[in-house]
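EI: anyone free to look at a 300-residue chain?
SC: sure, send it
EI:
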Amino acid sequence: MKEIRMDCEKARNIDIVSTLAKSGHFPVRKTEKEAWFLSPFRTETQASFKVSLKKNYWIDFGTFEGGSTIDLVMKMENCSVREALERLSGNMDHFSFHRRPNPTKKEHRTNPIQIIEIKEIEHRALQNYLSSRSISIKTARKLCKEIHYRIGERTYFGIGLQNRSEGWELRNSYWKGSTSPKDVSLVKNDPKNLTITEGMFDMLTLMELRPEIGNSHDLLVLNTTAFVKRMIKEIGKYENVELFLDRDKAGMGMTELLLEKCPNSRDMSSLYRGFKDINEWKVKSAKDEVRQRIQDVSLS
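SC: here you go
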């Protein structure tokens, strides 16, 4: 019992603001004495959740509940004291990710996305998301960042890919969007060879399958097929262009256009025939099939 009490005492001293941040909740306003949040337990537009910075104590004025860090985790996770202590141990390594409400179309339309923080990908929820898309954290860090952003009064976080106009493509398990200005993302490595995908996860998939591509090719992520026509002149300057566009109507149409306008282009989408895109194929196919198809395409 003494050991459990000591664990509880240590857990109560864990900073509540940091605990909330690790599950994607950030202050709407903050003073020297307190921080105010939109409640992590419901959807609201006015912050009613207060954290006393001096006492490290929270109170939700919507329900008049409150308590320590342990009480917060118990309520957020719907778990026992012992389970809360497990989640709080090891620098919160086991703290789960809670879905935040998606921004509504009205919120997104009337409120520009504000970038709060740009950092290396660290959050366990984002690592789990990458894993669900068959992307390793090592590969993702080569191309993307962890982005914390605000839409209206709500804060969110996700995987971010910067475009060449310094806007960001944003993705997490529940939402995808982009900041302004929207543009293509182009990584310069080799002026002779170019690899093109439609989205960031398609390029990350290629980097998983062919790690050398990050050194041997320039990497172009269109972020939307609407940018294909404006890129034709630039694409035409490369000696070798590999096309890994989606196998839907829009993607196939853009592939045909590029094959016609840029003679040095090659359609590589047979690699993932039967699937919408290369990431879907990698996620849903057995490793042996993936390996064999890569070999077949390389030899063709």
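EI: The chain has three domains: 2-92, 105-178, 185-299.
SC: 👍
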